[in-house]
Amino acid sequence: MGYIHSVTDRTDDLAELLRHASRALRRSTMALVEPFGLSVHQFHALRFIAGRGGGETRCAAPDASPRISDIAGRMGMVTRSATDVVDHLERKGFVRRAQHPTDRRSRVVEATGHGLDVLAKVESGRVAHAEEFFGRLDPSEQDALAVLLRRLI
Protein backbone atom coordinates (compact mmCIF):
# COMPACT_ATOMS: atom_id res chain seq x y z
CA MET A 1 0.00 0.00 0.00
CA GLY A 2 2.86 2.40 0.76
CA TYR A 3 4.30 1.91 -2.75
CA ILE A 4 1.01 2.80 -4.46
CA HIS A 5 0.64 5.87 -2.28
CA SER A 6 4.18 7.09 -3.04
CA VAL A 7 3.72 6.58 -6.82
CA THR A 8 0.42 8.47 -6.67
CA ASP A 9 2.04 11.29 -4.69
CA ARG A 10 4.94 11.47 -7.13
CA THR A 11 2.73 11.56 -10.24
CA ASP A 12 0.37 14.06 -8.62
CA ASP A 13 3.36 16.25 -7.74
CA LEU A 14 4.66 16.02 -11.32
CA ALA A 15 1.25 16.93 -12.71
CA GLU A 16 0.99 19.92 -10.38
CA LEU A 17 4.50 21.12 -11.25
CA LEU A 18 3.77 20.86 -14.95
CA ARG A 19 0.51 22.80 -14.50
CA HIS A 20 2.35 25.58 -12.64
CA ALA A 21 5.06 25.81 -15.30
CA SER A 22 2.45 25.87 -18.05
CA ARG A 23 0.46 28.59 -16.25
CA ALA A 24 3.57 30.73 -15.85
CA LEU A 25 4.31 30.52 -19.58
CA ARG A 26 0.65 31.17 -20.46
CA ARG A 27 0.47 34.22 -18.16
CA SER A 28 3.52 35.75 -19.81
CA THR A 29 1.99 35.18 -23.25
CA MET A 30 -1.31 36.70 -22.07
CA ALA A 31 0.51 39.81 -20.89
CA LEU A 32 2.16 40.15 -24.30
CA VAL A 33 -0.94 39.60 -26.48
CA GLU A 34 -3.61 41.46 -24.50
CA PRO A 35 -2.38 44.95 -25.50
CA PHE A 36 -3.10 43.94 -29.12
CA GLY A 37 -6.64 42.79 -28.30
CA LEU A 38 -5.77 39.12 -28.67
CA SER A 39 -6.40 36.10 -26.49
CA VAL A 40 -3.74 33.42 -26.21
CA HIS A 41 -5.92 31.15 -28.35
CA GLN A 42 -6.24 33.80 -31.09
CA PHE A 43 -2.50 34.41 -30.93
CA HIS A 44 -1.78 30.71 -31.50
CA ALA A 45 -4.17 30.72 -34.46
CA LEU A 46 -2.34 33.74 -35.91
CA ARG A 47 0.99 31.94 -35.46
CA PHE A 48 -0.36 28.93 -37.32
CA ILE A 49 -1.81 31.07 -40.12
CA ALA A 50 1.51 32.86 -40.50
CA GLY A 51 3.34 29.53 -40.66
CA ARG A 52 5.01 29.78 -37.27
CA GLY A 53 2.79 27.39 -35.37
CA GLY A 54 5.21 24.55 -34.82
CA GLY A 55 7.03 21.92 -36.79
CA GLU A 56 3.97 20.17 -38.18
CA THR A 57 2.90 20.53 -41.79
CA ARG A 58 0.13 23.10 -41.80
CA CYS A 59 -1.83 22.03 -44.84
CA ALA A 60 -1.51 20.09 -48.07
CA ALA A 61 1.18 22.27 -49.64
CA PRO A 62 3.99 23.55 -47.38
CA ASP A 63 3.78 27.13 -48.70
CA ALA A 64 -0.02 27.24 -48.90
CA SER A 65 -2.09 29.45 -46.66
CA PRO A 66 -4.41 27.41 -44.45
CA ARG A 67 -8.13 26.95 -44.92
CA ILE A 68 -10.49 27.30 -41.98
CA SER A 69 -10.61 23.50 -41.72
CA ASP A 70 -6.78 23.39 -41.41
CA ILE A 71 -6.93 25.94 -38.60
CA ALA A 72 -9.70 24.01 -36.85
CA GLY A 73 -7.73 20.77 -37.09
CA ARG A 74 -4.52 22.33 -35.78
CA MET A 75 -6.28 24.14 -32.94
CA GLY A 76 -8.37 21.12 -31.96
CA MET A 77 -11.71 22.84 -32.45
CA VAL A 78 -14.77 22.57 -34.64
CA THR A 79 -14.85 24.53 -37.89
CA ARG A 80 -17.45 26.99 -36.57
CA SER A 81 -15.19 27.94 -33.65
CA ALA A 82 -12.22 28.40 -36.01
CA THR A 83 -14.42 30.66 -38.13
CA ASP A 84 -15.13 32.80 -35.04
CA VAL A 85 -11.39 33.05 -34.28
CA VAL A 86 -10.62 34.05 -37.88
CA ASP A 87 -13.50 36.56 -37.86
CA HIS A 88 -11.96 38.24 -34.80
CA LEU A 89 -8.48 38.25 -36.32
CA GLU A 90 -9.88 39.69 -39.54
CA ARG A 91 -11.79 42.47 -37.72
CA LYS A 92 -8.53 43.42 -35.98
CA GLY A 93 -6.71 43.53 -39.33
CA PHE A 94 -4.36 40.63 -38.50
CA VAL A 95 -5.56 38.31 -41.28
CA ARG A 96 -7.54 38.39 -44.50
CA ARG A 97 -9.46 35.76 -46.40
CA ALA A 98 -8.43 35.13 -49.99
CA GLN A 99 -9.36 32.86 -52.86
CA HIS A 100 -7.55 29.51 -52.81
CA PRO A 101 -4.94 29.58 -55.59
CA THR A 102 -6.08 26.32 -57.23
CA ASP A 103 -9.57 25.61 -55.87
CA ARG A 104 -12.02 28.38 -56.76
CA ARG A 105 -14.61 26.91 -54.37
CA SER A 106 -12.31 27.34 -51.39
CA ARG A 107 -10.95 30.25 -49.37
CA VAL A 108 -7.70 30.50 -47.43
CA VAL A 109 -6.61 32.73 -44.57
CA GLU A 110 -3.47 34.84 -44.86
CA ALA A 111 -1.66 36.97 -42.29
CA THR A 112 -1.57 40.68 -43.16
CA GLY A 113 1.48 42.91 -42.79
CA HIS A 114 -0.06 44.28 -39.59
CA GLY A 115 -0.62 40.73 -38.31
CA LEU A 116 2.99 39.79 -39.07
CA ASP A 117 4.25 42.95 -37.30
CA VAL A 118 2.24 42.15 -34.18
CA LEU A 119 3.36 38.55 -34.33
CA ALA A 120 7.02 39.62 -34.50
CA LYS A 121 6.62 41.90 -31.46
CA VAL A 122 4.90 39.22 -29.39
CA GLU A 123 7.34 36.50 -30.49
CA SER A 124 10.27 38.68 -29.44
CA GLY A 125 8.79 39.02 -25.96
CA ARG A 126 7.97 35.30 -25.77
CA VAL A 127 11.54 34.36 -26.70
CA ALA A 128 12.93 36.71 -24.05
CA HIS A 129 10.63 35.28 -21.40
CA ALA A 130 11.36 31.67 -22.43
CA GLU A 131 15.10 32.35 -22.25
CA GLU A 132 14.67 33.77 -18.75
CA PHE A 133 12.27 31.00 -17.67
CA PHE A 134 14.33 28.08 -18.97
CA GLY A 135 17.64 29.85 -18.32
CA ARG A 136 17.46 28.54 -14.76
CA LEU A 137 18.34 25.16 -16.27
CA ASP A 138 21.73 24.45 -17.81
CA PRO A 139 21.72 23.37 -21.49
CA SER A 140 21.90 19.65 -20.69
CA GLU A 141 18.92 19.98 -18.33
CA GLN A 142 16.99 21.87 -21.03
CA ASP A 143 17.75 19.06 -23.50
CA ALA A 144 16.66 16.42 -21.02
CA LEU A 145 13.43 18.31 -20.27
CA ALA A 146 12.67 18.57 -24.00
CA VAL A 147 13.20 14.82 -24.46
CA LEU A 148 10.94 13.98 -21.53
CA LEU A 149 8.17 16.37 -22.55
CA ARG A 150 8.20 15.08 -26.14
CA ARG A 151 7.79 11.57 -24.78
CA LEU A 152 4.71 12.69 -22.84
CA ILE A 153 3.04 14.47 -25.73
Shape: elongated
Helix content: 55-70%
Q: What Rg do the Cα atoms give?
A: 19 Å
| Largest sheet descriptor | 2 strands, antiparallel
Q: What is the number of helices?
A: 6
Beta-strand level of the residues, as a percent range? 5-15%
SSE class: mainly alpha
User: Uncertain runs with pLDDT below 50, 5 residues or more?
Assistant: 55-62
Mean of the pLDDT scores? 89
Q: Major sheet: order of its strands?
A: 1-2
The helix/strand order is HHHHEEHH
**Strand element count:** 2
Terminal-residue CA separation: 30 Å
Overview of the molecule:
This protein has 153 residues and is mainly α. The chain contains six helices and two strands, in the order H-H-H-H-E-E-H-H. It has helices spanning 2-33, 40-49, 68-75, 79-91, 113-134, 139-152; strands spanning 95-99, 107-111. A two-stranded antiparallel sheet has the order 1-2. Helix 1 crosses helix 5, helix 2 packs across helix 4 (79-91) and helix 3 crosses helix 4 (79-91). The protein is elongated. The relative contact order is 0.11. Residues 55-62 have low confidence and may be disordered.
